[in-house]
Amino acid sequence: MPIDAAKALAAEPRTGEITWDHKDVQLYHLGIGAGTPATDPDELRYTLESRLHVLPSFATVAGGGKPGVTGGLSMPGIEVDLARVLHGGQSLALHRPLPAAGTATATNRIAAVYDKGKAAVLVLRTEVGDADGPLWTNDAQIFIRGEGGWGGDRGPSARLDPPAGEPERVVERHVREDQALLYRLSGDWNPLHADPEFAKLAGFERPILHGLCTYGITLKAVVDTLLDGDVTRVRAYTTRFAGVVYPGETLRIRMWRTRESTRVAVSTVERDDAPALADTIVEHT
Questions:
Q1: What are the b/e assignments for 89-100, b being 16+ CB within 10 Å?
Q2: The Cα angle at residue 236 between residues 177 and 49, in degrees rounded to 5
Q3: Residue 44: CB atoms within 10 Å
Q4: Could you give the CA distance from residue 76 to residue 274 in angstroms, rounded to a whole number?
Q5: Distance (Å, rounded) from C-alpha 156 to C-alpha 100?
Q6: Across the beta sheet with 14-20, what order do the strands follow?
Q7: Does the annotation count 178 as an active-site position?
Q8: Catalytic one among 24, 115, 188, 279?
Q9: Against a cut of 0.85, is the pTM above it?
Q10: Is the pLDDT assigned to residue 283 strictly greater than 80?
Q11: How many beta carbons lie within 10 A of that of residue 200, not counting itself?
């Protein structure tokens, strides 16, 4: 069997050093669409090193994307075809604001393996800290088509009840044709996002946008729209990737705010509001 759940869960965590600097942060911000208009003071906070603050979702690529989503596929007990792999969901907990440059220790392990019948789901947990203590914890849910059915634990349901009432804010964000090509320079080199032939083998008409790129675009929209541009107010951020986004499309981002969190739903305008992100919550002060 390509997935040996017991072996994967029993494997020793992998620990390594990661480093990043302002150039990595700026590249990530450009990869999620920051910098338009280029001279807008609100955008310069993401693009100009003298004013730089770090959007918390940068944690998903800090250190060049390693350990990243595909890193879990090389863990003991895991041997799967990359063309069958999709990113199913992501959660991020912030322990303190991210610095614009740093060196930290990342500990990477398989936290759970779920049997969904026609697919398997791996939960890849990455815990990161530096000399001053914990920085963030990332959980990536990795969906592997055709690898379930061994009778294992199905795991919890990630589905939430839809938000009630009309959203407080609705914004649209256009995805550039080259957005995936730019975003992948932050470390996720899966050819699904660049190679048309590979995308067809995976069942898509053309390369798709990284789910984590949509994730970053969405968090930036929430921070800029509801949190006064203050990235330090974000405490946690979770989502389920409900559908694909193609470069060149427009994201419609709906927001329902409460005192300590914001529910978000993201869809693609050009495909009749086909869902992109669901069950999405930004926790904040």
A1: bbbbbbeeebbb
A2: 55
A3: 17
A4: 36
A5: 35
A6: 14-20, 102-115, 119-130, 133-145, 85-94, 234-241, 274-284, 261-268, 250-257, 169-174
A7: no
A8: 188
A9: yes
A10: yes
A11: 13
